[in-house]
Amino acid sequence: MTTWSKRREKLKSSSGGRALLGVASLAYGAGVLARRGLYAAGLFKRKRIQAKVVCIGNLTVGGTGKTPAVLLAAETLRKRGHQVAILSRGYGRKTPRKEVSVLLDGRDADWRDCGDEPWMIHQSLQGQGIPVLVCPDRAKAGALAVERCGSRVLILDDGFQHLGLHRDLDIVLINARDPFGGRRLLPLGNLREPLSALRRAGMIVITHADRVTAVDLARLRADIEELHPGVQVVESAHKADHLLDVKAQVKLPLLRMKDKAVVALSGIGDPLSFEAQLEALGITVAQSWRYPDHHPYSSRELKAIEDLRGGLPLVTTHKDFVRLPEDWRELLGGEVLVLGIKLELLKGRNSWIDRLEELAGGRRK
After folding, report:
1. Rg (Cα) of the chain, in Å, rounded?
2. φ, ψ for residue 119, nearest 5 deg
3. Could you report the per-residue pLDDT of 214-273, keeping only the tens digit for each?
4. What is the model's pTM?
5. Are 35 and 44 spatial neighbours (Cβ–Cβ below 8 Å)?
6. Burial class of residue 65 in the structure, from the number of CB atoms within 10 Å of its CB (0-12 exposed, 13-18 middle, 19+ buried)
7. Which residues, in sequence order, are CB contacts of 151 under 8 Å at separation 6+?
């Protein structure tokens, strides 16, 4: 749990603290609505790119599983012959803010220059000819993708609140286990925008649909229908897909670690689920380190893990890897692996494919 999360939980424990957070939420909501109104009135201009733009985002802070959805959208379009690129903000990168970092197949990339998450996306898509362009100015990155890479469809990673860029389709992810962030705006709840913003969505993907009961799923679908009548809804689950050797920068098949022992490192809401996924692959979890959700790892913690892991491969999650300290390569010897997760569509797969095909202009050879 981050320092801010701890402070917020402490404030929630008292009536005065909840009142303070409630006032802050009202102020935050007023700002969000005012900004949205300025765009709607045309006082703030939206930039357009000479390509179709698909945005994948959410209404809440926290884990809806956007990265696997970005990967699935890119792969869906690429397999059907479309020139697609991914646009990412690149949080935490060392490159100057206004500079665009371009990650391409066959070109070495330093994760520090582009940020951990875009680097992970690039590694997961190796060999598929899908460039990843990194810059806070997504319009600038998108224009470069069109000019340099010939991209005709752009996927905007985590951009639902990035109103400055025109998009042709907004896909919003909703976590079935915590759909609406307590139905309160930040900082009292976890909503980035009021629930009315859901009406901007052209499609909704319910993630972790396999982790709730049929009754809960039906109730969530009814809530979505009430908020946005007639919107397309797809149900999905997150499944193990591959192992990424982050030192060698190569993707390994899941069978690579079958019948082998590893140590597991996680700071997520449900560490047992992560470890169960490893064991289901025939991997023995010899040791496990479990930290609070969103835990920012320190160099001291990694050194302690290294001293105790006995040379076994360390396996962590994508979400945890991006929170390792900058000197993780020096601190951790041997293999460091990330369990790659794919988004598996349980219901609505044809709707997903058809909608992306329609947006991209049909299947290409």
Report:
1. 21
2. -65, -40
3. 999 999 999 999 999 999 999 999 999 999 999 988 889 999 999 999 999 998 877 887
4. 0.88
5. yes
6. buried
7. 51, 83, 84, 85, 131, 142, 145
